Structures are given as structure tokens and as C-alpha cells.
Amino acid sequence: MIIKCPKCNHFVVDTTVVCPHCGETLKNTVQAPQEERTQPAQQSVETDLEVTPSAPIPPVVPPQEEVETEPVVSSETVTPENVHIQPEPSSQIVVDPVTSPAPVPASPSPMAQPVQSSPSPMAQPSQQPMQGSAPVAPPPAYQRAKKSNSMIIALIVFLTILLCGVGGYLYYDSVYLPAKIDREAPRYYTMANAVVLRSSKSAGADFNKVASLPYGTELITYEQDAEWSSVKANTTTADGSQPKGFVASQFILSKPDFFLLNSIFGDQDSREVVFTTKCRMALLNYFKEHGLVGKIDEQMRQDAGIATIPDTGNQWQVFCRPKDVKPNNVLFKRLHDKNSNFTDFAVIIQNISNGERRLLYFYFNDAEQPYLWFEQAAPESGYIKDAVITRSGYLQAYYSY
């Protein structure tokens, strides 16, 4: 163990009886100087140093860890008078009661100047880790808590993405996509007074009837062929729903055709008298082929997509008396073919600008397709009472005034 001489402050081995530098007797020293005790406890270093009178002992800085070294064998003869075997180091210094010989003066040496001990920065307890030192690992409990929080956050993010994805898909599939299809689907309109909406493509039965659609009902049309059309009525029923199903394609018209047909009837009686779809199609086809149009608002005409621009020469309409009143401006009679399944259709149209009137006579084939048979001028007033075919093959109409 290394101790400091209380007189010259040189470091010597604790087994030395007399300081080789100043001759001070060391065995009577009971405890180390106060300055030594106030220093932080350092790990002891067990060593035996060679002690010579002429060679000063350099100051020894205690290392951070306890190091055991081999004892140094001195060339000087060791006698029981100057060597005392010390037991294991303890907190107290044991004083040897044996009387030591007289001190031997030592010659001064430049290297033997007193060395002032100062606390080493490395020997002080550090409150902060040294710069460049390895980071201290967090305790396991903190790591487990951090890992648990990360898993919870990841789970929340995953559930949020999942809910957003499922909700977005459901909204797209059940709200956005149907609304988009309805906006882009073409509009058709019922042209008969009562069109049956069915749940399946089967006519002549009652089990599949969904609703009865009145004249002019707007239909959002999804699919259409020659016989059936898949539609949804753009009207709200009593329970707040819009009925969907199938209607016969022959009873519906596109938007331009329906608004053109509707403009032909001069009043409600006219539409009720010309009530069959085949007669209405006969009038519509005639107006389209001859570039005629009925009475219609300009903005409505543009919205409907009717290309014919009304003027004083092309605006014609049908004006009839009530349905049960006869004679009238219409006539239903078989003249073209006595054996036909359908009666012929005669009607008077009138120019709404100059009052000019014309008589149109149509017949129908077995598929109910109309054909114009006769067209001739009609008197300024009067109603159709009867019509016959002359021997020369012309139509002779009789009027009642």
C-alpha cells in the first residue's frame, strides 16, 4: 500500500519504517493526512516497490480497477529490522511498536521534489456520461412499455385504415356508384295512360306487378331491348322508395320524342281521346317525318333536345271534343282491311297560326306499326262523322257541323 510522508509529502510504501527522502519515522503515523481521507475511496492497489535511498519513487496514480502485480525483489539485503510484513489492508493503519533506527539523511535530488497531490478529474464521481462513451441501455420495463405502445399505435393505425377502406367501399358501392349510374342513365317516359311496372320480364300476369305508372312518368333506364326495359321510376311512393323493375319497351319514349308527342295534344280531351299507343305513335311518326312540332315552350324544347324550331308553318296540334262525344275530330273504323286485328285511325290536325286543317288516315299491321294511307285537306270547321272508300279508291270523309 502506498502512503504519503507527513513531513515531505513523498509517496512511499507502507512497510517503510523511515522515509528515504527526509528521514522521518513513519511507523508512528496513525492515520493518513486529512486531505487523503477526503478524497473519494479508490480501489486499492496491492504491490511491493523496491526502496532505495537514492532513487525517488515517482507518484503513482491509482488506476480505475484493482491490479495485482508481482512483488519486486530488491537487491538490498532485507533484514527483520527494516521490513515489517503488513496484514491485509484495512480502513485503519496499524502502528508497529518496534523502535526504528535513526533516520538516514538523503541527498536532495531534483527528481525528489515534493509532489503536490491534486484530485484527479478521473477520480471524481461523474454525474453525466463522458463524451464519446457508449449509450446506456434503457431498463427492460421501459423497453417493454415502449414496445407495447408501438404495437397499440400500429393496431390503431391498421384499424383506422381498415375502417376507412371498408367504409369507403360501402359508400362507393351503395351511395356514390348508384347515384352516378342514375345521373348518367338515359331518361325515358311512359307514353300510355297506365304502364305496368313488373318485377320480371313476364307479361299477362298479376304476381309480378310492382306498380302502375301514369302517363309521362320519368324512367331512369338502365337497359333496353326490343321487348323489355330495366328501369327505375323517378318518383317517390308513399313509403319513400323509388320502384324498380321492367316495363314493355313499346310503351316508353325517349325524352325528345315524348316532349314532341306531348306538344301535339292541344288539350286534355285530345290526349284522352287519342288514348292508344299505336295511334299516338302514328301522330308522332308523322310529325317527325314532316318536320312539324306542336306548341311547346322554347326552354323546354331546348332541354328536351327537339331540333325543330317552331314557326307559323310547322306548328300543328290536335283538338278534340270530350271522349264520349260524337262526332269528334277522330274516327276509328276498318276500311283498309276488314279482317285486320286493329281498326284504322283518322284524325284532324290544325295549324295553330292560320287555322288550316288536314285529315290524316292511318292503318296498322299485325305488329301495330302505323302507316299513313290518306292525307287531305279538311274544312275549316266540323267533325268527322264517317269515311268511306270510293270506287276510284279514294277516301271520302263526311263531316258534321
Question: What would you note in describing this structure?
Answer:
By secondary structure, the protein is α+β, with helices and mostly antiparallel strands. It has 4 domains: 1-120, no CATH class; 142-184; 187-253, Roll (SH3 type barrels), CATH 2.30.30; 265-400, no CATH class. It has helices spanning 34-38, 140-184, 255-264, 268-273, 277-290, 298-304; strands at residues 2-4, 11-13, 187-190, 194-198, 209-214, 218-224, 228-233, 244-248, 252-254, 316-318, 330-333, 344-351, 357-364, 370-377, 383-389, 395-400. The strands form 5 sheets. A 5-stranded antiparallel beta sheet has the order 8-7-6-3-9. Strands 10, 11, 12, 13 and 14 form a 5-stranded antiparallel beta sheet that branches. A hairpin with a 6-residue loop joins strand 1 (2-4) and strand 2 (11-13). The radius of gyration is 62 Å and the shape is rod-shaped. The protein starts with a strand and ends with a strand. Mean pLDDT is 80; it is low at 29-54, 65-85, 89-102 and 104-126.
Overall number of strands: 16
Q: How much is the radius of gyration in Å?
A: 62 Å
Termini distance?
Answer: 152 Å
The residue ranges in which pLDDT falls below 50 over 5 or more consecutive positions are 29-54, 65-85, 89-102, 104-126
Count of runs of 4 or more consecutive helical residues: 6
Task: Tally the structural domains.
Answer: 4
- In helices, the fraction of residues equals 10-25%
Strand order of the largest sheet: 8-7-6-3-9
Integer average pLDDT: 80
Major β-sheet annotation: 5 strands, antiparallel
